[in-house]
Amino acid sequence: MQYNLTFSMLLTAPYLGWIADGVLTTLHLALLSWSVALLLGLAVGIARVSSNRALRLFGTFYVELFRNVPLLVQLFLWFYVVPEFLPSETARWWNRLDEVPYWTAVIGIAFYTSSRLAEQIRAALGAIPKGQFEAALSTGLTKLQMYRHVIIPYAGRIMIPAITSEFLTVFKNTALALTISVVEISATARKIEAWSFKGIEAYTVASATYMLTTLAVILVMTMLERRLAIPGLIRWGS
Amino acid sequence: MDWQVVLNNSSLLARGLTTSLELTLFAIAASLPVGCLLAIGRLSKQRWLSLFCASFVNVMRSNPLVLVLFWLIFLVPLIIGHRVPNLAAVSVAFVVFFSVYFSEIVRSGIQSVGRMQISAGLSTGLTRGQTMRHIVLPQAVRAMLPALTTQCIVVFQGSTVAYVVGYDELLHSSSMIAERTGRPVELYIATAAIYFLVSLAGSLLARRFETKRSRA
Amino acid sequence: MTAPIIQVRDVVLRYGDFTALDRVSLDVFEGEVIVVCGPSGSGKSTLLRCLNGLETFQEGEVIVDGENVATCRNLPALRRRIGMVFQHFELYPHMTVLQNLTLAPIKAQGLPRAEAERLAMDYLTRVGIADQAGKYPGLLSGGQQQRAAIARALTLQPRLMLFDEPTSALDPEMIFEVLQVMKNLAVLGMTMVVVTHEMGFAQEVADRVVFMDRGAVIETAPSAEFFASPKTPRARAFLKRILRIG
User: A97, exposed or middle or buried, with CB in 10 Å at 0-12, 13-18, 19+?
Assistant: First the structure.
């Protein structure tokens, strides 16, 4: 095996700029899709436990649809299929956007992830004793106030580990966006390899990006979990 | 829309699905034993062994499958000196990648069996191995079953990633047909439907395991 | 005599085939303490939960403080006038005791925070745990948690209080402190409906006892009368069993 490692090459133009762009794209793509997914997932998760039959049915349909089609296929659907069904005005506006692949990736990853988050949220809501809902209602809170002040803060704390691991999944899933030509860090690494044949260096940078971010996220979330731990409450599921 | 194009190419799609399923089954069949070894290694009292397994698992878990695939496609020819067919690279990448996830499931399954169960086994005069075989593992397997089924669906959905290196699974076949016929709308909808049905069948199976278990 | 503060008329509640409440009627007057007792599964808790609309019934009507519960447009407003105490306390574990007490007054009643906190501290003092205000519920003993839960209901300054087996989840040595708080409340003239197995409390504090079995009210009698000579055989059998054990 003949191979000269020259990591210093990565610090020269144009590679350094590419890497910076790739890392940033991965990070904000992950954060943005995850935030959207969290909001969607919260709404769908609550719909799944709602007392309204139609809402529950909608929630089930949504979750099954979005989690049983592979993310890569969903990205293709959003990229190649959905624009064909838009009214011509909207389609024109969409196609004129600067970063169509990027926004497609945000939408695709967000919907896919939201179905998984919805299930986590449903499980967390199910883990909250029924009496908590009744106690909140019995003090005259409206349903909305009950969710906002009692149930969601409670469920949120139970869910921190699940939400963390879901974020890390999203973070890794952003790599699939390279199939619709979003140049995030994995695509960047491949591009550098193609230009310079320095595959080990290029892929090391990409792997390091994922590993360091993962480590940082885990550290922050563990701290958060400890700070937000509910005193005296037995930890759920452990 | 013209669904005729899907019907005309149904044999190609069927071949694609077969390839996807073969890749999935191979990946599961090979990853599960490797995953078991990794899990046992992690729970081992040998510090270096458990440390090694833990590092391997954590490194793999923080990388996306696509990147693992890129790594192998670049590294394998470099190490063995000549190019390898896509099938080999994809297979190795899937096993390396998914065995880690299986190992985590096996590990939490073993740990879900209470320590008192081991004490109880030992107290009745069973050896450590017998206790593991007759008491811990049967309970662990039952506890793992839902997660294992779910993971198999993840592997199936993950098989689409092989598309990236042009491996001829369902998504790749479908995209080739889409390109040739100029009808991506019909083909991608049909492909999504196929993936949906197979995954849904899998999740229904997983749910059956779960309800069986909660009733037990 | 003024109109009763609670009027329950022929209420029927079914879960599928199972009849949980079978034409139940009950009047409660202001200042009265009613103890509802009966074997488990007799519908006592279900009846209680109909009074503040946590349970929906199919037939009959419930009028509380002048409002029809089933058709009430603004249940939250009605519920603020009805305090409820649960078997398992149901304090919110992620909030301090004080936050537990002030949440509804601030969010639902719109009281200023300072006012709500003053009120909350006042009630915490009355139930004897003012020193626990800043702690999280999980760190309190069961008796302290239940007293905090009672204070949470009182902070809304309700017209009446519902107690759903408030001592059933407590260790024996903590039952006393909770019953003491409830007795004080009764002495101050609070209208109370209490589902409980504490026959000592019923004898000492209740004005009337309601005995339920299999979803129906079997007997309603002034407390002294009920314990001295229950009219129905079922009530007699129940009392015999519970007093021998207790």
Answer: exposed
Single out the residue of C178, C57, C110 nearest to residue A140, CA to CA.
Answer: C110
Amino acid at C68: N
- The CATH number of whichever domain residue A155 belongs to comes to 1.10.3720.10
User: Cβ contacts (< 8 Å) between A207 and chain B: which residues?
Assistant: 59, 63, 67, 71
Q: What are phi and psi of A150, to 5 degrees?
A: -110, -60
The answer to whether B and A touch (≥3 CB pairs < 8 Å) is yes
CB B6: neighbour CB atoms within 10 A? 20
Nearest by CB to C152, which of A139, A142, A233? A139
pTM of the full predicted structure?
A: 0.80
From the list B62, B75, B191, which residue is nearest A73 (CB)? B191
Q: What are phi and psi of B123, to 5 degrees?
A: -65, -25
Q: Which of residues 170-199 of B touch A (CB under 8 A)?
A: 171, 175, 178, 184-185, 188-189, 191-192, 195-196, 199
CB atoms within 10 A of CB A51: 7
Give A-chain residues touching B185 at CB under 8 angstroms. 80-81, 84
Task: Tell me the domain boundaries of chain B.
Answer: 4-215
Residues of B in contact with A206 (CB under 8 A): 67, 70
Q: For residue C106, which of C164, C156, C159, C177 has the smallest C-alpha distance?
A: C156
Q: How far apart are CA B40 and CA A67, in angstroms?
A: 31
Do the chains contact at C84 and A138, CB–CB below 8 Å?
yes
**B150 at A interface, C-beta within 8 A:** no
Asked, for residue A237, whether it belongs to a domain, the answer is no
The ipTM of this complex is 0.88
* pLDDT at position B88: 85
For residue A233, the chain C residues in CB contact (below 8 A) are 93-94, 136, 138
Those residues of chain C that have pLDDT short of 50 are: 246
The whole domain housing A105 covers: 16-228
Q: How far is CA A43 from CA A38, A53, A119, B107, B181, in A?
A: 9, 15, 11, 33, 40
Residues of B in contact with A74 (CB under 8 A): 192
Q: Is residue A131 part of a domain?
A: yes
- Please state, in angstroms and as integers, the Cα–Cα distance from residue B27 to each residue in B23, B34, B74, B170, B198, following that order: 6, 11, 20, 16, 17
Inter-chain residue contact A210 with B161, CB threshold 8 Å:
no
- In total, how many domains does chain A have? 1
- Tokens (6 digits) for C17: 């085939």
**CB of A52 less than 8 A from some CB of C:** no
In a domain, A5, yes or no: no
Domain B4-215, second-level architecture: Orthogonal Bundle (1.10)
pLDDT under 70: residue ranges of chain A: 1-2, 233-238
- The crossing angle, in degrees rounded to 10, of helices C97-107 and C113-126 is 130
Q: How confident is the model at residue B213 (pLDDT cuts 50, 70, 90)?
A: low
**pLDDT grade, residue B215 (50/70/90)?**
low
